[in-house]
Design a protein that fits this description.
By secondary structure, the chain is an alpha/beta fold. 38% of the residues lie in helices and 20% in strands. It contains nine helices and eight strands. Strands 1, 2, 3, 4, 5, 6, 7 and 8 form an eight-stranded mixed beta sheet that branches. Strand 4, helix 5 (141-154) and strand 5 form a beta-alpha-beta unit.
């Protein structure tokens, strides 16, 4: 599963078009909370030395954008293990993988297909870090509990970025903004998925297992530099709202036309709120 992050138009079967993942990559990179990197680097620096360097498991990797953002910000050799259900996305992630860390050390990549909702501590044996981007909000409570348990049992930190929190601010404002947002959030909670509740559930799950948890805002800031992305986000946002509440459709179509026109004219600004989470479990094996 390449996480749709609550703000991503999802294709059939919870697989995500590479075009959408590419369109959002620059906005994702600008939004991720760099303030969480220093405490992460401190933990990683205190890990026992391994011949392979850092071993990073990237869950729901999509085209590998998390690795392209994070690997060049970490020192030392790195082995990234990319997890996704979609073999086409895994092939793209391999092709586009970074080759070097911040200090020029080599970065290597392998892939795994499978259900990340069933991850165990054994799957993370030897891991230095678990990462994911725009993933938590398309998981169930049970899946987040499983993820937190696996990381805690293995003593592996987790950097989980770009989880939607159920809030979008559009400027200029429109009378239907809140109604669309509420219908969209209800849509995201369908089928036991947590949607905007995921970040709270994840914080509680990691904390209950003894982890130190830090959360930092990571909003998309969309303006006239992001017209194509904003247009696609608007279509997905309004479409999901109408799927949840079909009685909105006629008014929502007019709303969408107005919003798309403002976007094309460079007059629309959108702040789409996310949160990034860093969980530092109690170390295992003598790490500090």
């Amino acid at each position: 599963m390449a996480g749709r992050g609550g703000d991503t138009p999802a294709a059939e079967g919870h697989q995500y078009a590479p075009q959408w993942l590419e369109l959002r990559e620059s906005a994702d990179a600008a939004a991720r909370a760099a303030d969480l990197l220093d405490p992460l680097r401190i933990r990683l620096a205190n890990l026992p030395r391994r011949a392979t360097g850092l071993v990073v498991h990237d869950l729901g990797c999509g085209t590998g954008s998390m690795g392209r953002w994070l690997a060049p910000r970490l020192d030392g050799a790195q082995q990234w293990v990319l997890h996704d259900q979609d073999p086409a996305l895994l092939r793209l992630a391999i092709e586009r993988a970074p080759r070097a860390g911040a200090d020029g050390s080599p970065v290597t990549v392998t892939t795994r297909r499978g259900d990340i909702g069933r991850l165990t501590a054994d799957d993370l044996a030897g891991a230095s870090l678990v990462t994911a981007s725009a993933l938590l909000d398309v998981l169930t409570r049970e899946e987040i509990e499983t993820l937190a348990g696996a990381c805690a049992d293995a003593g592996v930190p987790a950097l989980l970025t770009l989880s939607v929190v159920g809030r979008a601010d559009l400027v200029p404002a429109h009378p239907m903004d809140q109604e669309i947002a509420e219908a969209f959030n209800a849509h995201q909670r369908a089928s036991e998925l947590l949607g905007p509740d995921a970040i709270t559930v994840a914080c509680e799950a990691f904390a209950q297992r003894g982890a130190t948890v830090r959360v930092h805002p990571s909003p998309w800031q969309l303006d006239d530099r992001h017209i194509a992305l904003t247009e696609e986000w608007l279509r997905g946002w309004v479409g999901a709202a109408c799927e949840q509440r079909p009685e909105l459709t006629e008014r929502a179509e007019a709303y969408l036309r107005d919003r798309l026109a403002a976007c094309a004219a460079g007059e629309l600004r959108v702040t789409l709120h996310h949160s990034d989470l860093l969980a530092l479990p109690r170390p295992r094996g003598g790490t500090s």
